[in-house]
């Protein structure tokens, strides 16, 4: 009995951990300095980006994350500036971030 309670607790931790793994990745890559989850900040909200890119190309979004610049969706976002290049983000992180952002679309 004690063991199964412990097992359940560990399972919960694992689920909670994986659910926020990419938000953590966004924080460690400084994305959240300019992006918020639901509200506009310096950059568009992650939610708006997800909905605008729904069904789009993950690889293209990952490439934009590294290169920055003026987005093809700038008309929608109405940000005051282009996104500065995020050259320090690894290819693997850029792909994981793009997949995570896409997954936020409702
Ligand atoms: C210095 C501020 C800043 C930082 C840091 C930043 N962004 Fe951005 N981001 C922006 C702005 C501003 C835009 C809107 C650009 C536009 O509309 O032309 C944007 C747009 C985007 C888009 C939309 C691209 C599209 O075509 O729809 C994605 C995705 C994105 N950012 C992801 C990230 C990720 C992931 C990180 C972290 C690795 C990050 N950003 C870091 C400011 C920032």
TrEMBL record:
One annotated GO molecular function:
electron transfer activity
Domain Cytochrome c intervals: 17-105
The UniProt keywords, alphabetically, are: Electron transport, Heme, Iron, Metal-binding, Signal, Transport
- Stretch forming the signal peptide: 1-21
Report the PTM annotation. Answer: Binds 1 heme c group covalently per subunit.
Do the record's keywords include Electron transport?
yes
Q: Which Pfam families match?
A: Cytochrom_C (PF00034)
Q: Which residues bind heme c?
A: 31, 35, 83
Protein name in the entry? Cytochrome c
The species this protein belongs to is Candidatus Electrothrix aarhusensis
